[in-house]
Amino acid sequence: xxxxxxxxxxxxxxxRALQSRDDQYKLSKVIELDGSGFGNQKTxxxxxxxxAVESKDWVDEKGRQKSKAGFAKIFVADETRENAxxxxxxxxxxxxxxxxxxxxxFIHINNPDHDYRITDSKQDKINAWLPWVHRFIxxxxxxxxxxxxxxxxxxxxxxxxxxxxxxxxRHDPNGLFHRALTACTVSKPYTTxxxxxxxxx
Length: 201
Hints:
Blueprint: H1 3-22, E1 30-40, E2 45-59, E3 65-76, H2 81-91, E4 97-100, H3 104-107, E5 115-118, H4 123-129, H5 131-148, H6 156-168, H7 176-186
Helix pairs in contact: 1-6, 1-7, 5-6
């Protein structure tokens, strides 16, 4: 393996450790949930991704009610009801309120431990209903294309794990390196797949 392949392998091990660290946390209270396709569908290099982002209310110094994004979670999987239920059960605490659109995967979710609010399919209402999850998806796609110029679909979960880890700790940029180092220290060993230099989008 050449030096680039060695670095590539190490990076994937680090991303797996970051993913493992975020797996320890669950989202709570008010959650925005949606799905999107990442990659180029025409070339067959696309994966569907379920994304959930906490919506946090707060009051500024002038007493104005505002909202902001909290932590995020991702699940690289087809947008089906079964996958949505699995994603929610694993990553969202019971008694949370889940806001989503009228997608087929989200309309008839069977999960008595969570409450749901569903908006209609009009795009302007969806954008206002799910601002933070849409911003996360948009920024993640921009990061993948701008930084990596596209990635192979089979490695998408690892790249999104890195993006999500950075997003969830965006308010502590100075501590990000030490947090990542801790994640790598406590993570179990991983064996990476052989290096591939195909990064088509």
